[in-house]
From TrEMBL:
It comes from Physeter macrocephalus (Sperm whale). The chain crosses the membrane at residues 188-210. This is Butyrophilin subfamily 2 member A2 isoform X7. The gene is LOC102996651. The keyword Kinase does not apply. It holds the Pfam family C2-set_3. Residues 210-253 form a coiled coil.
């Protein structure tokens, strides 16, 4: 039977204090007092009257079990709290042999708050516990249980101490371990303790060596695999290069064949320039087969056919059907554009020379060749153009450009159905050298182009520029 507990208790009362201790919930008794704070209001007829609080000490009796339940309230609504306390002296028990040593268990009860328990060897050094548990019983007090295993034969006595850190009070128990309880060490065990580490080191070294050999083998295998992959890639690249060269050769043969076919079917167009369309800064030769840009504008009538902003001039003939072909010498001209356009294009203002506006042209500007489209397409030509061939197939909607020095294809405009007559277009952006139109043979109308290509008649080039461009000389 657990005896009741007596704790000192003080009650604060609002209203008249009652003289009867039992009316306040306390019962006089022996050694059973608890410290508590209690307030209540006088309930009666004159409950509006206020009284100043008064403090008085009353003996209150509660069973010990009821008091020690933390977090509960007294029967009349009051509250209580536990005071620090020291528990029982630790009890040490040898429970037997375990893992080649002696297992000791230490138990102590009745502590509050949670205590600190440790094992110590004969030299006062703390020994780490194998197990440690702190629990509370129904009264709210702590019980501590610790276990330790003693393997060292030199340790003959062990101390279990439990300390209340708040009160700085400690209880301890020392146990002496008889030699008969200490397990004897077998010679085989001694030998095993010497051989086993050496064996483990040998095994670890063997494992490391095996892993190292495996890693080296793996690295060597990866290197061989990489070399094989590189060889395979090189072989594929070589094969790809051969295929590309063969494809390029076939394309060249196809283009040459197409060029021969075009030249055998197309008719050479005898193109001459139309002076009524020439920009005022353009000077035409007397035979109207070459044009040069001058340093200033000429005084010319501003007729509707004339370009007033773009330095362009059109061919005199227009084409509404059939296949046609002509060549232009552009060797020394730094800025130029050649091609075809609709006869109805806008000639006033800065019109863009793009298919949307009725122009299909090839341009040389800033040492780069461009197909004037939207957007522009830069052509990666390996050598500078000297003579450009323009091919027009009206029914097929085809305008193509060729390098007539090596008969290589330059560019083909996206095909689109033509409507209305088309005319050759020439544009000069620099005044360094004239642009020449290669003449067809006499009576070339309807005459097929020979396989060797047109022979450029350069008789006029032996004449001075002043003879070719009398208007330029006059300026």
């Amino acid at each position: 039977m657990v005896p009741d507990a007596v704790l000192p208790c003080s009650v604060r009362v609002q209203g008249p204090a009652r003289e009867n201790g039992g009316a306040d919930g306390g019962v006089p008794g022996k050694n059973n007092l608890c410290e508590r704070s209690y307030q209540q209001r006088e309930r009666g007829a004159d409950h509006t009257q206020r009284h100043s609080p008064r403090k008085r000490h009353l003996p209150l009796l509660f069973p010990r079990r009821q008091i020690l339940r933390r977090g509960h309230h007294a029967p009349d609504g009051g509250s209580w709290s536990l005071s620090p306390g020291v528990g029982s002296k630790p009890v040490i028990e040898m429970t037997g042999h375990e893992d080649g040593g002696i297992r000791l268990e230490c138990t102590s009860v009745g502590w509050y708050p949670e205590p600190r328990a440790v094992w110590r060897d004969p030299y006062g050094e703390i020994m780490p516990p194998l197990e440690e548990a702190y629990t509370t019983n129904a009264d709210g007090l702590f019980m501590v249980t610790m276990a330790v295993i003693i393997w060292d034969q030199s340790v003959r006595n062990v101390t279990c101490s439990v300390n209340n850190t708040l009160l700085n009070q400690e209880k301890e128990t020392v146990i002496f371990i008889p030699e008969s309880f200490i397990p004897s060490t077998s010679p085989w065990m001694v030998a095993l303790t010497v051989i086993l580490p050496s064996l483990l080191v040998l095994i670890a070294g063997t494992i490391c060596l095996i892993k190292k050999l495996q890693m080296e083998k793996k690295i060597l295998s990866m290197q061989i695999e990489v070399e094989n992959e590189e060889k395979e890639i090189a072989r594929k690249e070589l094969g790809k290069e051969r295929v590309e060269k063969e494809k390029e050769r076939q394309i060249k043969e196809q283009l040459h064949e197409e060029l021969r076919w075009r030249r055998s079917l197309l008719h050479a167009a005898d193109v001459v320039l139309d002076p009524d369309t020439a920009h005022p800064e353009l000077f035409l030769s007397e035979d109207r087969r070459s044009v040069r840009r001058g340093p200033s504008r000429q005084s010319m009538p501003d007729n509707p056919e004339r370009f007033n902003c773009q330095p362009c001039v059109l061919g005199l003939e227009n084409y509404s059907s059939g296949r046609h072909y002509w060549e232009v010498e552009v060797e020394n001209v730094m800025v130029w554009a050649v091609g075809v356009c609709r006869d109805s294009v806008e000639r006033k203002g800065e019109a863009l020379l793009v298919p949307q506006n009725g122009f299909w042209t090839l341009e040389m500007f800033e040492n780069k060749y461009r197909a004037l489209s939207s957007p522009e397409k830069i052509l990666p030509l390996k050598e500078r153009l000297r003579r450009v061939g323009i091919f027009l197939d009206y029914e097929a909607g085809d305008v193509s450009f060729y390098n007539m020095r090596d008969r290589s294809h330059i560019y083909t405009c996206p095909r689109s159905p033509f409507s209305g007559p088309l005319r050759p277009l020439f544009r000069l952006g620099s005044d360094d050298s004239p642009l020449f139109i290669c003449p067809a043979f006499t009576g070339a109308q309807g005459v097929t182009v020979p396989e060797g290509g047109l022979v450029l008649h350069r008789a006029e080039t032996h004449r001075s520029l002043q003879d070719q461009f009398p208007r330029l000389r006059a300026k």
